[in-house]
Each structure stands twice: as structure tokens, then as C-alpha cells.
Design a protein that fits this description.
The protein has about 800 residues and is an alpha+beta fold. The chain has four domains: about 190 residues, no CATH class; about 130 residues, no CATH class; about 180 residues, no CATH class; about 200 residues, no CATH class. About 50% of the residues lie in helices and about 15% in strands. The chain has 25 helices and 23 strands. The strands form four sheets. Strands 4, 5, 6, 7, 8, 9 and 10 form a seven-stranded mixed β-sheet that branches. Strands 15, 16, 17, 18, 19, 20 and 21 form a seven-stranded mixed β-sheet that branches. Strand 8 and strand 9 form a beta hairpin. The chain is globular and about 100 Å long.
């Protein structure tokens, strides 16, 4: 009966019903999406046996602030570390094309990796120890998803061969979808076949593409194991050069932390923003429901006169909320799936990460919990108003006097002030992030990125020595290309290399090592502050001298005489001396906000090697050449090499380096706009109700001589006072929010005047406009109609 009565009441006010369900549903969608991501990324059990005991082991260079994997000899010695039960290596995935032209996402892993994770094949057998022996026939494990998609789960796939260009692999087993190492997109696993040469002590410092997963003893934490790891290898002679020159530090962290690295901070920020918007939504709804209860005072008086108690009003309110919440949560659940997809598109959630995020039962449970918790402030507001209400039916049925009841009005105004404050805090945070983003993108990079096209060639096993040279010629011949060059690592190309160097009779140091081709500095627009560039007729890197950057020049030759000095490159069995022939400007290589403290040494490479990156300076928009470049590569190098080649403008690579910040700005902007809209809506509703409830008072003022302008100023003054209180509280909340994002700000402080001023003016403008319309309507009241309650 109560639900039927509540439903009839909501049907009679469709605007209120749909509006309340819409704003609660939208705000809840964000919370459900972020809550689902947080649960599945950080709390849902991993799909492995005792997944909390799994750790990754890697080297970290404090000099270049990057993970650098491990070396093969180090992998072989890890099992000697106390507390490690088992360990397996793996390499990063790569795309390989078979003889039929089909592309496979392939990973080479240690033969013991599936057993270490506690995973068994769904069909066939897994790797055995002998499969890892050098020279043994190559076998392959197939992902269950590929077995389904390409072979329609045909059991006879076992025993078939996949013929890649460099190896033939026989399928021996099908692995379940829970095997997601190194990533969730792997289609084929091949066993690592490492021989004595790879495990030799000479390779101990050859860190790079190898990674390791280990299983700890029960009860041992990753932090304690990391201490044991560092103690075990503290004085290892093979690691001494890396420790000295690159500040190598061996680290270990849980497998979950490894896969979710970089996600905790942005998701925490988004969760705080969404909770702020949800708070604004609930305060808005509480104010609207209080106005709704006041407007139904006569109905409640009649019910009271007929014997209904105060609890009946609360039951009606609860029934109405349940109906609205059901509509809102239904909307939120429907929007959760596309919203999760949007977060993946923005890059907030990485779909290739083995810990996947998807709509599931946890999302539904969260929706129920959100609906229950969201109802508390609304029901409390209704209970408080019911307790404050006069109990005499005659009093409720009689005239309300010339002024509105003050207690409910004060509560509604307080709710509006809190909404203003939340909107202010979000606007300030968005302004700070936008200013920081703009500052980052306008940093001096040390080169001219505007008209550059970067081609990262895929390895061509059929022509490893000539493919890059052919591609360079094809690139140079395209219309619109002004100059071309090549390098082992171009700025923002996501490839890093570094080497040890020494000065005569002085200490050694680590520096970024770049092998570059003719016209490299000209093509990128890197200025030479002293000396000259490379002689294009030089025979190779050991005979052309070197160019250093200004970081090294100022550090070791502050008097400006770096040109002509000697730089020694220690190599296995020899020490090669290079003459410094030039000093180049400092370049930012990996990140816009990196501190250029390491220094760079450029060496000359006349022809590109098998692993190289090409760069072209263009006279036309570089993005217009992406299609022609790929067509040219397809014609000259073949489709498989062209498909595996990355072609991008330098501007896009630069933006990709800060792409983790862009989603936060976009989402915070959406939340700030929503909070601002809710605040404006709440102010409009409060002021409109104020005009209705003070109709008699306003009519009396106008009958006594007040004109429309005076009434308008009176009503606007209420809005301005609310705004001032909101700005004061919002300033405090904004300072807290600015502290949360301080680590992501670049070039500005958390009290940046422009950001704060823009946020204040935006909030003030929107809210004054929201209060203007009710004030304008109040100024247009007829005194006679107002005094008679609109009945004459």
C-alpha cells in the first residue's frame, strides 16, 4: 500500500522523479565503474595458486629512473636467494608472422613458468625441462582464446606446426585464459632455450629484455625478500659496473603491484572526485526532497488529521526513495559497461594488463550498497524535518504567515554551501592540472618536434643488415620529405640505451648512448653550441669522434673547452678513445618533465643497423605521410615487416609520454562540470522555493513602496551570501585537493593564482546566473496577487 501510494505520488511529479533518478544514476555510475576497477585490480584474488606469494624481480637504474629487467646469468643465480622457492624468466612479447602471413602475438618464457603459476593445460601437455635445452625441437603452447577463434576448439590441433620465419614450433598443449604472462594478449608461448654462452659471467651486466617471476616461501613478504635479494648480491663483482655507473638496485614487488603499477594514484584521485560529486548529488537530492515535503504540508496535515503519525511520512519518503533509487541504479548498471570501455579508451584502465577489469557480480553488489548508503542523508533530512514539523493539523492547514519557516530554509542553504565548496575544489584542481599540462607541452625539448615523422622498423630476419637502409632510401624519396636520418634511439621513441665512459685520469660516468646517422642534428633541429657535426664520410663510430651534450660539457669542462678533449669508452678487452668534436643542446629524451642530469654521447653510424629508428623532417604535415610511408615499406620490405613497423609523428609520441595525465584532466573536468551544474540547479531550486514561500512577504514589501529592482537585489543578496560562504569553504577543500595532485603539477604551485582566479570567477558567474532568474521572477510579482497568495 505504501509503495503504491509513493508510486502514484512520483507519477504525478514526473519532472522530479526523472530528474532525481537521472542525477543519482549518473553520479552512481562513476562510483560503480571506479569501484569495479579498484576491486578487480587491487583486491580480487589473482587467478593463480597462492597468487599473493608471486613476485617480480628486476633491476632498477636510479640514474635513468627506469626498470631495466635482469640479465640471464642473474636469472640463473636467483634461486640461491633465501626465501625463493622457484623462479622463471620471460621475455617481452613480439608479433611474429608465419609462412601463411598470419600474425601471432608470441612470448618466450621459462619452461617452468606454468607450473610456477600453478596452471595446467586444458588440453595436451605443458613444457618439460628438456624443452628448454638449446637445440631441442621447438614446441609451443597455444592460448585457449586462439584455439577457440582460429581452430574452433578442434582437438586435432595438437601436433600441428606453426612455421615462423626463423623457427618451426609444434603445438603440444592448450593453456587456459588465466595464463596472462607477460600480458593478456599472448597467443603462443615458446620455451626459452638458453645455453652456456648466455649464462656466462661476462653477460652478468647485460640487463635488458629478460624478466623474472618468482614464488616466495609462505609468509614471506616482498619487502623482506627484497632486502634479502639486495644483501645476497650486494658485493657481486659482475654487477659492480652497473651499480657504479647506473646506480643499479635490485627490486622485488608483488605480481599484482607490478601489473597495476601507476594505476593506484589516478584511480584514487578519480574516486575522491566521484565521491565529491556523489556528495553534491545527495545534498542536492536532500534539499529537493525537503522542499517536496514542505510543499506537501497540507497533504500531510490532512493525513495527520485522519490519524496518520509522523512515521507514516517517513515510510512514504522511504518508499519514494526506493523507487527512485531502483530507477537510478538500473540506469547506473546499464551505463557501467560503456563507461568501463570509455576508461579503457582513455587509458585509465589497460586492457592488456593480465588483471582485467570487467562488469560482473561485484558491480551489482556495489550498486545495492550505493543505493542503501545514498538513502541515509535523504532519510535523515526527512526525519529531521518531520521532527521539526508542527503537530497540530489546524496549524498545518492554516496560513503560514508572511515569512517562511526558517529552520528548514537554513538547512537547505547549508546544503547548497557545501555543494558550492565541492564544485570550487574540483574546479581548482582541474585548473591546476590544465595549467600544468599546458606548461609541459610547451617545454623546451632541445629540438624541433613540429614536422618530424618517426619510423620504428620491425626486425626483418630475412634481411637484417639491408632492410633499414632500403627503408631509409624509400623514406628520403617521398615527396614532402626534406631530410632523413636514423638513430638507435630517437627522443620519445620509447627506446633507451646507456654506456659507461671515462675521462683520462678521472672518474668514469654513465651517459645515454646514441648511435646516429648523417644529418641527425639537422633533421631534428638540434643546435650545436660548439664544434661541428659528424663527417658523413667517416667510416664508423670508432673513427668519427663524438658529440656530447651541454650537460656533460658544463659538468666536466665548465670553462667551455670541451671540443678537442678525449672521451674513453671502455669495451670488453679494449679502451677506445674518442675525440669530442662538438657540443649539442640538451635534449629531453623520454619525458617532458625529466631532469636532464645524465648527459648524452652521440656517436656516428653511417648506415642504420638491424634495430633502428628512422626520422624525417617534412615540409608537409607529417601525419599526411603515414599512409604513403607504410605503402612504400610494404612494397619494398614486405607486408609482415611493414605491419610490425610503428609510424608516428613526433608530436603524437610526445603527447603519449604524458598520456597518463590526460584522462585525469578529462574525467575531472567532467566531474567538475557535473558538480557545477548540480550546484547551479540546487541554488535555482532553493531560490525558486524561497520566492514561492516568501510571496506574501514580498507582496507586502512592494505594497509598502519597494520597487522591482529592490526586490531583485534582496533575492540576489541571498544568492551572493551563499556564494561567499561556499567560496570560503571551497577554498579549504581546494587546498586539500591541490595537495593530493601536487606531485602531478609541473612548473606551477598548488596556489597558482590564475587557476584559483579562473575557478572562482567561473563558479561565481554560473551561480549568480542561477540565482538571477528566481530574483527576476520575484521582481515581477503583482503586490495584490502576492498578498492574496495568487488568488486575485
Amino acid at each position: 500500500m505504501t509503495l503504491q501510494r509513493a508510486l502514484r505520488g512520483l507519477v504525478r511529479t514526473p519532472g522530479f522523479t526523472l530528474g532525481a533518478a537521472l542525477i543519482l544514476g549518473l553520479a552512481s555510475t562513476g562510483l560503480l565503474v571506479v569501484g569495479t576497477a579498484v576491486w578487480q585490480l587491487f583486491f580480487k584474488p589473482l587467478p593463480f595458486v597462492d597468487g599473493d606469494q608471486l613476485v617480480t624481480i628486476h633491476g632498477y637504474s636510479q640514474q635513468i629512473s627506469r626498470d631495466i629487467g635482469i640479465s640471464v646469468p642473474l636469472l640463473g643465480e636467483l634461486e640461491q636467494v633465501e626465501g625463493l622457492v622457484a623462479v622463471a624468466g620471460y621475455e617481452e612479447t613480439e608479433d611474429r608472422t608465419d609462412r601463411d602471413g598470419q600474425v601471432w602475438h608470441v612470448a618466450r618464457v621459462g619452461a617452468g613458468l606454468p607450473d610456477l603459476l600453478g596452471l595446467a593445460p586444458v588440453l595436451g601437455s605443458g613444457f618439460r625441462a628438456e624443452h628448454a635445452d638449446p637445440g631441442a625441437p621447438t614446441v609451443a603452447l597455444l592460448a585457449e582464446s586462439v584455439w577457440q577463434a582460429r581452430f574452433d576448439r578442434d582437438p586435432s590441433v595438437l601436433g600441428r606446426d606453426i612455421e615462423f620465419r626463423d623457427v618451426r614450433a609444434r603445438i603440444i598443449g592448450i593453456m587456459p585464459g588465466s595464463l596472462t604472462v607477460p600480458d593478456a594478449d599472448v597467443q603462443v608461448w615458446l620455451p626459452l632455450q638458453l645455453g652456456a654462452d648466455e649464462f656466462s659471467a661476462e653477460n652478468m651486466s647485460s640487463f635488458g629484455g629478460m624478466h623474472a617471476i618468482g614464488r616466495l616461501q609462505p609468509g614471506l613478504t616482498p619487502a623482506v625478500f627484497e632486502q634479502r635479494l639486495q644483501q645476497h648480491f650486494a658485493d657481486h663483482p659482475g654487477l659492480a659496473p652497473l651499480v657504479q655507473f647506473f646506480s643499479l638496485e635490485l627490486r622485488s614487488r608483488s605480481l599484482r603491484d607490478h601489473w597495476t603499477a601507476g594505476k593506484r594514484a589516478p584511480l584514487t584521485l578519480l574516486a575522491v572526485a566521484i565521491l565529491a560529486v556523489l556528495l553534491t548529488t545527495l545534498l542536492n537530492l536532500a534539499g529537493l526532497w525537503m522542499s517536496r515535503l514542505l510543499a506537501r504540508g497540507h497533504v500531510q496535515a490532512i493525513q495527520s488529521a485522519l490519524g496518520a503519525g509522523q512515521w507514516q511520512s517517513l515510510k512514504n519518503l522511504a518508499a519514494e526513495y526506493l523507487i527512485v533509487a531502483a530507477l537510478a541504479m538500473g540506469l547506473a548498471l546499464m551505463l557501467s559497461v560503456p563507461s568501463l570501455h570509455w576508461l579503457k579508451t582513455l587509458g585509465v584502465i589497460d586492457d592488456s594488463v593480465p588483471v582485467s577489469v570487467a562488469f560482473g557480480p561485484a558491480t551489482v553488489m556495489m550498486a545495492i550498497a550505493v543505493a542503501a548508503l545514498a538513502g541515509l542523508p535523504i532519510l535523515l533530512a526527512g526525519w529531521w524535518q518531520t521532527q521539526r514539523r508542527q503537530t497540530s493539523p489546524a496549524a498545518l492547514l492554516g496560513a503560514g504567515g508572511v515569512t517562511a519557516r526558517q529552520a528548514p530554509a537554513r538547512v537547505r542553504r547549508a546544503l547548497i554551501v557545501v555543494q558550492f565548496a565541492v564544485a570550487m575544489a574540483l574546479l581548482v584542481c582541474v585548473g591546476l592540472l590544465l595549467r600544468s599540462w599546458h606548461g609541459l607541452l610547451n617545454e623546451d625539448l632541445g629540438f624541433q618536434p613540429q614536422s618530424l615523422l618517426v619510423v620504428s622498423l620491425a626486425h626483418d630476419p630475412d634481411r637484417p643488415e639491408t632492410a633499414a637502409a632500403e627503408a631509409l632510401e624509400q623514406l628520403a624519396a617521398l615527396p614532402g620529405v626534406q631530410s632523413v636520418s636514423h638513430a638507435t634511439a630517437v627522443p620519445f621513441g620509447r627506446v633507451e640505451s646507456a654506456s659507461n665512459y671515462e675521462l683520462p685520469d678521472a672518474e668514469g660516468f654513465a651517459a645515454r648512448d646514441r648511435l646516429v646517422g648523417p644529418d641527425y642534428f639537422k633533421t631534428l633541429g638540434i643546435t650545436l653550441s660548439a664544434g661541428r657535426s659528424f663527417d658523413p664520410d667517416a667510416s664508423g663510430p670508432d673513427h668519427a669522434g663524438v658529440v656530447i651534450d651541454e650537460v656533460l660539457a658544463h659538468r666536466y669542462w665548465p670553462d667551455g673547452n670541451a671540443v678537442g678533449q678525449q672521451l674513453i669508452a671502455p669495451r670488453p678487452g679494449e679502451r677506445i678513445s674518442h675525440e669530442i668534436i662538438g657540443v649539442a643542446g640538451t635534449v629531453r629524451h623520454m619525458n617532458l618533465d625529466e631532469e636532464p642530469s645524465m648527459g648524452t654521447v652521440y656517436r656516428f653510424l653511417p648506415q642504420p643497423g638491424s634495430v633502428t629508428q628512422l626520422v624525417a623532417s617534412t615540409s608537409v604535415p607529417p601525419e599526411s605521410l603515414i599512409g604513403p610511408v607504410r605503402q612504400s615499406l610494404t612494397a619494398s620490405l614486405g607486408e609482415s615487416t611493414a605491419q610490425g613497423t610503428s609510424i608516428a609523428t613526433m608530436d603524437s609520441l610526445i603527447r603519449r609520454s604524458v598520456s597518463d595525465r590526460q584522462p585525469q584532466i578529462v574525467l575531472l573536468s567532467v566531474f567538475a562540470a557535473l558538480a557545477l551544474l548540480l550546484s547551479a540547479t540546487g541554488l535555482y531550486a532553493v531560490m525558486s522555493y524561497s520566492v514561492r514561500s516568501r510571496t506574501t512577504e514580498l507582496g507586502l514589501r512592494m505594497a509598502l513602496g519597494a520597487d522591482g529592482a529592490e526586490v531583485r537585489r534582496l533575492m540576489l543578496a541571498d544568492s551572493i551570501w551563499l556564494l561567499l560562504f561556499g567560496l570560503g569553504l571551497g577554498g579549504v577543500l581546494a587546498l586539500v585537493g591541490a595537495r593530493l595532485i601536487a606531485s602531478q603539477l609541473h612548473g606551477i604551485g598548488s596556489t597558482d593564482p590564475l587557476s584559483w582566479t579562473a575557478a572562482t570567477l567561473t563558479l561565481a558567474l554560473v551561480l549568480i546566473l542561477a540565482g538571477w532568474w528566481p530574483a527576476r521572477r520575484a521582481a515581477g510579482l503583482s503586490p495584490m496577487n502576492a498578498l492574496y497568495g495568487g488568488q486575485k
